[in-house]
Structures
1.
Amino acid sequence: MKQFGLSKKERIKSKKDFDFVFSNGEYIFSPNKTFKAVFYIKKETEEAVLQAAFAVSKKSGIAVWRNRVKRLMRESFRLNKNILLPLIVDKKALVQIIFSSNSISFKSNKKIFLKDVMPQIVDIMNQIKEKI
C-alpha cells in the first residue's frame, strides 16, 4: 500500500460488501454531527486490509456539490490513513469504513472546503482507532 495513495484494493466497491458493513458495522459521528461513518473490524485475518467508501445522499444537494464533498472526504482519508494503518498492520485486521454526510447539505453550506471536512474525518478515524 502506498502511504498516500488510494488504490482499488483500498476501496469498497461491491454491493455485497456495502450491505455487509451496513448490517454488521458500528456507527460513529463527527463531533458536530456533520459526517458519520459505518465501520466493521475483523481481527486476526490473513492479511491487513484497510478499505473505505464515500457516500453522499441525493437529498443533500446538486450533483456537483455532492461530488465535491465525496472528493474532499476521499482526500481527507487519503492524507490521514496513516492514523489507522500501523495499528491495522500490527493486529492483522480487516477494517472497512463507509464515510457519509449526515447533517450537511447544499442549502446550509453552498461552498465547502477541505479545511471544513478534514478535521471531522480525522476525528472519526481517531474514534475508530480507539476501537481496534
Note: The chain has a mean pLDDT of 93.
2.
Amino acid sequence: MTTQRRTRLVFGAMTGTSIDGIDTAAVSVRGRGLRARVTLCGQAHAPLGALTERLRSAQRQFPLTAGEFVALARDLAIAHIAPLRQLAETHGAPDLIALHGQTLFHQPPDSLQLIDASVVAHAFGCSVISNLRAVDLAAGGQGAPITPLSDWMSFRAKKSWRVVINLGGFCNATVIPPEPIERSDWIGSVRGFDLCLCNQLLDHLARTRANAPFDADGRIAAAGKVHAAPLTALRAHLDQQRRAGRSLGTADEILAAGSSALADLNPSDALATATRGICETIAAGILEPCPAFASGASVKVLVAGGGAKNPCLMHELSRAFGKRVHTTDSVGIPAEARETIAMAVLGTLAADGVSITLPAVTHRGATQVLDGCLLRANPARP
C-alpha cells in the first residue's frame, strides 16, 4: 500500500539580533523529514514599535524585574499575532507555527530566545514549536549556527558548491558541497560557522555617527572612502571573532572597540571602512575552509539577510568572490525570507523527529531527546 504524502502549511517567525522587526513566512511542506520538499507561499512583516527599545535594553543586559520579563515575553508573542494572522488570511490556517523568539542572551551553554509560545498557540489553535536551540546546548553544542541543515534542504545542488552567507546582526555562513558519490555522506559534509559582526556594527555606526537608524541602501558608506590604518585596527577585532571557533553572541558585540578603531573618521568614511572590514573578514573565513575556490570548481555564493539589500556590502563581497556573488533571490528564495523559511523548515523537521543541528557544526554530542518545545493542538477540539 502506498502511503499518501500530505502537504502541510507551516509558518515560520523570526526576530533577528538587529531587533528591527518581525519577519514571517508561510511554506508548503510536501513529505516528511529530510525527504520533504518546501515551497514558499508568502511573507509578512510587522514593526516592533515600542518593543524595540525594551528588547534592546534587555539584550544589553539592563536589569528587569520578573514581572517586566514575563510581560516582555508575552508582549512579543502578541506582536507576532498580526503578521501571522495576515499569512493565515491569505494562505489558510497553519498546521504548525515555528517561533524563534528574540535572542536576549547567547553565551553557551546558556542561551535565551524570548517569547511566550503559548500565547501564539492559543491565538491560532494549532501546534507551535519553539526553543529550537535548547537540546543542542544541553548536549554540549553551541546552539548555533542553527540553519545549515535547512540551507542544505533549500540550496543544495548536484554539481556545484553553494556558499550561503547571511548578513544579519552577525554574519554566518553555510558551505554545501555538491552531491557526493555516496549520497548518505552529503549532510555530514555540510559546514557552518559564525564569522563576525555585520549589521549590528553598521547600524551602531549609523545611529551614533550619522543620527540615522541604519545606513539605508548603503548610501552613507557609498559617499565615504576606506582608510587603511583604521581598517587594520578593525580587522584585528573582527578576525578575533572569526577565529574564535564558536558561536557568537552576548559580549561579542565589540561595538565600543569597533567604534574606537574608527573614531577619527567622519560618518561616511567610518561606514565605508567598516563595510570593507566586515567583507574582508567574511572572505577570509570562507576561502580558508572551502577548497572549491582554489581548485576552480563551480561555486555559487548566495547572500541573504538584511545586508543583501545594502549595495555597498554586496559590492565589497563581489571584490572578494567576483561574479559568483548573487542574492538568494536568484534561486527563488527572497533574501529577506531565508531565516523565516529556515525556521519553518527546522520546526517541521523537529516536529517530524529529525535532529535539526549538525554535530560537525555545533559540536553537540549524542542525545535521545527531540529538538524544540512543542505545544500540540488538541485534535478532539473543533
Note: Residues 66-91 form the longest helix (26 residues).
